[in-house]
């Protein structure tokens, strides 16, 4: 009975090299006061020059870029297969003229890493979204021919105006045509002002615990409201972190749509596919939610045949230096075993069978 | 078997009078081009002078201020008792020197409305939060002596710096001492920028469906992280809209706290009461969530003995002019009946028994 991790990130060597060449966020740098370790700074808020360099971003070690460490992590946690994806912020920040080539180079690098461990590694590719649409579509077609690629990872920014941007339609059409799933993942969070004047006292908790899932929820709701799934009825999206908060808020979203005078006047209410139908037809959810309360809501919203185990590795490592197993991983294992305590067969579907069927990981 | 509505708002005559005297948000005004109806504008984003007055805010009719209409609505939906509360934005906007007297006047007005329908109406009072702390505490003590008052409604702003503001401690202490529950309700939402450039095309859906619950979630998480419930272990809070998204995200919040190096270094992780304990000890949730998926998550997080039916009346009225029953109300009734289809006794607890026990509505 295989266990498959669909939410696990890597900064492959070609990407780290790109980040090392930069001096503005996102970047990787070795600061003079800590010559023996490098730091990865991916968010503008983490780049405050008034703080010591050791509190800027996070230390980046081999668990971020060494594929052998990914395999060791998988072995420790009895994970048979992983579908690796470039970590945020992907290539969103690149100038248009560099993005196409960078995407090819990095996707080839990742496909090559997968080839080293036959049957154990697959990947979601990265799109050069800042490049012209034809470049993006060319890369989608190219990815469809790479042996280990099983879809694409995408942030919430799209071409810069969100995932409800009509300019994305040719890209959605190409993804739908090549049956490529989108793994939708947050990065940008919410404006720092929403967390209040004491937010810094709580470390990274507010942006990580709330900003990320809320960003995902807003992005997917904008897709829903703009009719993306009415136009592309076979477009599939895997939502990170069990949908952000979509399963919990789906009822409120439907109610607000049905009670909105503006949408009714525009005629946008009649004939649309509702959020529940899309949750059960076009949306897949990972099981990175750390509680059986959340996991059961995700299952009730989308169905036990649409959830897939994930770890978010290499993020959320144990704080204790001697710890071997990762609490964060065991929390997600525990949630599955608790949610399905009366149905081990469904637990096994979420742990691995769904991913093998949905992402075609048979070889 | 009584049905009790704990989430139902009123703009009592004294409050409408106050709003009519104003020219900036929040206000009530009769615009020259619609002389036969008044409009209520409560959010800065609804006050765009470049749009026709008929799309500014919403029409305010007797369902907002006439207590007889509240009773008629209750009768239509077989609601035996309601715990009415002033609707947002309460008195947050008042200058310090006016707030104390306004709160007294409005609370007395609301208590008087309840007195007209013995046994059917109770209320949450409103605090003059912009006034000095001693004025706020005096009103808390006064409310404890008013016959129909059963706690206070509060927004997420507190004294202007959120509910994790240490300056709120004397107020929390007074509420705890007088066993007054806080009904925590959103109003401010999120900055408009998070909804993207096409947000206006979706009417009010994004701020209402997502902004409101996310605001509540951020506010309550700030309370948790600042240790409000470690200092005030008997302080009870009823969260609007089934907790915003807290039940779904509680696992992620706990995981982020446990994995935060900054909090660990500060020693803030050891000994604190965790989110699950607070959800089951200090937090109550209304059942205004419009789906059994969300409702079950709320029940799994807090327990079926801590949820209480609500309607959000007079908001979310049916769009069809001839409709009698309200879809929004029936969606919440339906969620309860579906979530508890095998346990009518628990359904009855959520519909009314819990509210009668928790809020002492025995007379």
Automatic annotation (TrEMBL), chains A, B:
Molecular function per GO: carboxy-lyase activity; hydrolase activity
Protein name: Uracil-5-carboxylate decarboxylase
Species this chain originates from: Lophiostoma macrostomum CBS 122681
Keyword tags: Decarboxylase, Lyase
GO biological process, one term: secondary metabolic process
Domain named Amidohydrolase-related: residues: 4-361
A GO CC term assigned to this protein in UniProt: cytosol
UniProt xrefs under InterPro entries: ACMSD (IPR032465), Amidohydro-rel (IPR006680), Metal_Hydrolase (IPR032466)
Family to which this protein belongs: Belongs to the metallo-dependent hydrolases superfamily.
